[in-house]
Amino acid sequence: MLPPLLEIDVDLPQPATMQEEQAAADAGNTGSSPRSMRSETCLLRGPIIVGAGPSGLAVAATLSLHAVPFTVLERSDDVADLWTNRTYDRLRLHLPKAFCELPHVGFPGDFPTYPTKHDFLRYLKSYADRFAVSPLFGRTVTRARFDAAAALWRVTAVASSPAAANGGEEEGAEVATEYASPWLVVASGENAEVVVPKVKGKERFAGETLHSSAYRSGERFKGMRVLVVGCGNSGMEMCLDLCEHGAMPFMSVRSGVHVLPREMFGASTFGVAMKLLKWLPIKLVDRFLLLVAKMVLGDTEKHGLRRPKLGPLEIKKVTGKSPVLDVGAWSLIKSGNIKIVPEVESFTGGSGVRFVDGNEMAFDAVIFATGYRSNVPSWLKEGDLFTEDGKPKAAQEPTSWRGPNGLYCVGFSGRGLLGAGADALRAAADIAGRWQQAAGAETTASV
Ligand SMILES: Cc1cc2nc3c(=O)[nH]c(=O)nc-3n(C[C@H](O)[C@H](O)[C@H](O)COP(=O)(O)OP(=O)(O)OC[C@H]3O[C@@H](n4cnc5c(N)ncnc54)[C@H](O)[C@@H]3O)c2cc1C
């Protein structure tokens, strides 16, 4: 097997104006004024992959099976930053393991149906080892643009940890490296940055505010009144966790939400839905799911959880919003241990929070379970795959994984790990075809 990184230390010609423009952009993008900034260029023979999450690993593994070298740039210091550093302790995969495996390697037989995040991380690390994927850690990609004259993607990564800024740099120095390659794979994830809504008066709140990515366990909230803003899978599960740790959770709900039992008729709801979709139109499957949900859970609207007009699968398809698969929070909502409150209007000073219905309540802490977004528009300056808010342009379906000029996008189909695996297989096969063509042309030229 070829080594994962084929790096040729060749300085690409670069006009002075572009270097200046790039240094300025880098300083701006990192939001800091580095005490010193060294800059160098590496021309790579294989593709550049941005991100060492499940998507980046899956595409790297598949490229290695095609004997195509690659370079993975990852901003954190380990694989799967989201799962390692930004998730709560009790998290398990929301979907059964059969729908979450990456290409080529199944989960070990002793994994439970819903693997814990620790199981999943163990799997991802051994996956990376198995395919000799060694990302360059501590490299934050701040800019990528296509150089049409050279037919190369020029990708700037800033070394974000002192350990990566080796070579005798002063402590804290930043090194901006430009990597150049004919192929760029965007695998930085749909969840790269946290989303926290602007709420009037938030700075005046006397208690703690945090995003769900910083929540680990309800232990330190024991005895506290905690407002959880958002009612997706994370919001619901954190309320459950808070309850189990002796806190008093309130869940602020702005719009409608579909809560479904995680299992129906002894099988996973997701699996049942996937099977039915092979035979029935989406609207009919939605009606079936809602009927069973009503039988199992009762009327969620009675307890403050209004159902959206579109069904659970249709709304996912149209807006990307996933239904909540209940893991126990629902019965605590019914028993009143988790209280549903309306959308937050403002923070009123001290520990007060006012809701849109005019009521006011006091809380010790507020957790924003308000989701994530992609960061692609902040660094990808070319190509036509993404909207301004970092979502792939739906109009390009079903080929949203491939853009112009050797640009690929893995893990943005809104279909979780299953979609990421499918994208990775297609992108890697396409790159391998072009790689072999290029290698053939080189051989012919040298003969
Ligand atoms: C709480 C939670 C539970 C979930 N459960 C499931 C589930 O059960 N099943 C499922 O299918 N999906 C689940 N998901 C969705 C999940 O995010 C994805 O399935 C999976 O993590 C996507 O992998 P990814 O590699 O595309 O993105 P990520 O896991 O986000 O990985 C992207 C990587 O890119 C790096 N990166 C980002 N920007 C840059 C940059 N500029 N430069 C360099 N590196 C960068 C990040 O540090 C990260 O390591 C869950 C998500 C959350 C938040």
From TrEMBL:
Disordered, as annotated region: 18-37
EC number in record: 1.-.-.-
Reaction(s) catalysed (UniProt annotation): indole-3-pyruvate + NADPH + O2 + H(+) = (indol-3-yl)acetate + CO2 + NADP(+) + H2O
Gene Ontology annotations of biological process type: auxin biosynthetic process
Any single Pfam family the record assigns to this protein: FMO-like
Molecular function as annotated in GO: flavin adenine dinucleotide binding; indole-3-pyruvate monooxygenase activity; N,N-dimethylaniline monooxygenase activity; NADP binding
SUPFAM superfamilies: FAD/NAD(P)-binding domain
This protein's UniProt keywords: FAD, Flavoprotein, Monooxygenase, NADP, Oxidoreductase
Signal peptide feature range: none
Cofactor dependence: FAD
TM segment ranges: none
The organism's place on the tree of life at top rank: Eukaryota
Family per similarity comment: Belongs to the FMO family.
Name listed for the protein in its UniProt record: Flavin-containing monooxygenase
Lineage of producing organism: Eukaryota, Viridiplantae, Streptophyta, Embryophyta, Tracheophyta
